[in-house]
Queue: 4 jobs
Job 1
Amino acid sequence: MIRHTVAFSLKHAAGSAEEKAFLDAALVLKAIPGVEKFEQLRQVSPKADYAFGFSMEFADQAAYDGYNVHPDHVAFVRDRWVPEVARFQEIDYVAL
C-alpha cells in the first residue's frame, strides 16, 4: 500500500469562490481507477505553513503509476494545480 499525501496552499484568498472552485475541481481525482480513501483536509496546526492537504491510498505501485498518467490527473495538474497552487510538499508513504 502507498499513501500519497500533499500539503499545499493556494494563490486564492481563504474562503473565496476561487478556493472553493479549486477544491471542487479536485474531486475528479477520487474517481480515477486505483484511488482509495481520497480525502481533502484543512491544515490546522500552527507549526505548518500550508492550508490544505490531499491524502489517498493505492494498493501498489502499478495503481499509483496508473493514477499519475491518467488523463484526468494530468489535466488537473496542468489546468488547476500549476496555475493555482502557491506552494506544496508531497510525501508518499509505505508501511514499515
Job 2
Amino acid sequence: MQTPNQETPKFSVIVRSFRRPQALQELILRLRQQRYPDFEVVVYEQSDDRALLAELEALGDPRLRIVAGPALSPPAARNAAIRHASGEILLFIDDDDLPIGQDWISEHAKNYRDPRCMGVVGRLIRDPAHLEAPRFPRIMRAMAMRHTVFKDTIMLAHNTLRKDDIAFLIGSNASVRRSLVDRIGGWDEGVPMHEEQSFAFKFAQNRRPGERFVFDPTAVMWRRTGVPGGLSRRAGEDWHIRELEARLFFYKHVVGHYFERRYRLLFPLFWLRGIEQVIVWIWDPDNADRPLTARMRASVEVIWALPEALRFERFSADNIQRVTSWS
C-alpha cells in the first residue's frame, strides 16, 4: 500500500470535456508545463471525437490519461473521471478554463501539508492581464465561500485574501483529498446546477474534528466564458427559464433532501429566492454579451414563468443518484 507523501502527494488533475477540442488542447498544453513533480491528467472526453482522441494519445505523455465515454451530467462525468484517477489529491478544472503560471498545482499542494486540510479552492479571474485586488478584500473575505440560509452560495472567489474555513468546493480550480471522497462518497448525479453543494452538505454532516476546506488565492485560474462547445446550458432562447427551473429543482431535491425541515418551513421563500437569484445572474458579467433588451425581457419573463417552472418538466427527480460510496 502506498504511503501518502505529505510534501508532494500525487495529484490527479480531473478534466471534464465536451465538444471543445481547441480549448482542451490549450488546457493540456498548460497542464503539461506544470512544475509539480508528481501528477497525472485524467480527461473524461464525452464528444466521441476520434481525431481529438488520436491527437491526445499521440502526445505520448505518460502523465496523460484519456477516458472516452458517453455524455453525462456534470457531476456524473466528474465521478466517472475520478474512478480512473490514482492520485491522493484530486484537482478539478473544466475544459474552458486555464491555470495561471507553472506552479498552479504546487500552490494547491502546499495546503495539504496540514493533514486537517481536506479541500482547497483557488482564485478565479476574468482577465489574466488584470490581477489587482478587488475593493474591500477584508469584507469580501468575511462574506465569501459560505452558504446562505437557503443553502445556496456566496462565492466571491476572485478575492485576494486567504480564508481558512470555507463551506464548499466549487467546480473548477478546486482540489480535495481522495480519502475524503472515498469516505463520504462522490457528487450526487443528475443535479442540473449547484451540483457541488451535495458534496459540501455531506462533508458538513460527516466532517471530523479540525477538518476544513480553505480558500487559497495563490492558486489562480482564468475562468473563461463564451468558449464554444460544452453543454450549452446558457444557450437557446429559453436560457433564463432553464436557469430558473434548475435552481428550483436544486432547492427542492437537493436542499430539500439534506435539509428537509428547513425547506418545508421556508418553501414559499425558496421560490422568491429562486426568482431573485436568476435575475441577479441575468445581469451578471457572464451574460454581458447579451443585448440589454434581451436581459430586460428575460428578467420580466422569469417572474411570470414561476408557476410553470415549478413543474420541473425538463428535469426528473428519478434521475438523481445519491452517491454515498464508491463501488
Job 3
Amino acid sequence: MRVEERKLGRIFQLVFDEGDDFFGELNRFVKEKNIRAGSVFVFGALNKTDMIAGFRSMECYDIDRRHLGDRRELLGLGNITWPEKPPTALGDVTWSEPQPYIHIHMALSGGPGKTEEVLVGHLSGGQVQGILTDIYEFV
C-alpha cells in the first residue's frame, strides 16, 4: 500500500446546463483552474451517455463501450489526475504533455420505461440534461 497525505484546497460547485458536453466543459474547467488532484462528485441526468460497462473477458483490456441515447439519471464519484500518458480507457489518443484525466465511476438509471434497469461502469461522455458537480481539490 502507498500513502500520500494531502490537504484540502479549493472546493468548486459546477452547475451544468442542458445540452452541455459534460466532459468537454469539465476538462476545460479543470485546466483553467489548474486542478492537479481532487475528488469529483456528480449528481444529475444525461440526455445521451457514453460509458464503459465493464470487460468482455478476464483479459481486462477488451472493454465494453456503450452509447445510450435516452434520458438517464446518474450518480458518480471520481478523481482528477494528470498522467504522463493517456490511460488505455481513452482509446487511441496521444498526448505531448500530461493532461487532466477525470475518472468517474457511476451508477446510471434505466431509460424511460426501464425503471428496473440499473447500469454501473465508467462515464466516458455525455450530453447534459441537468447536472450538479462538486470538486474537492487536494494540495
Job 4
Amino acid sequence: MITLSQDAVSQIKKFRDEAGLPEGGLRVSVVGGGCSGMSYKLDFQKDPAATDKIFEQDGVKVFIDPKSFLFIKGLELDYSGGLNGTGFTFKNPNATKSCGCGTSFAV
C-alpha cells in the first residue's frame, strides 16, 4: 500500500493537469544512484504497464512496477511547501538510512 497526504494529492493533481494528463497517473519508481544507493523517481504516465501495482486515493492514481514496490511498500508520499523547501518528501518504512536531502535511501 502507498498513501498520499492531502498536500501530495493536491500537488499531484496540479502537476498532472499541467502535464496534460488529467486521466493519467503518477509513476513512482526506484532507480540506482544517489548518496545512499537508491533514489526515488516520479513521472506522469497516461496508462499503467500490465504488471504495475495500481493504487488510487482521492482521484489520484499511482503506478508502481513490481521491483520498485519491493523497496517502497508502505511508503507515505507528502508534499511540503514551507520555508525549509518545497517538494515531495518520502516516508519509507523500508529505508534503513537516507541522505540529508531525503531523495535517496538504502534498505
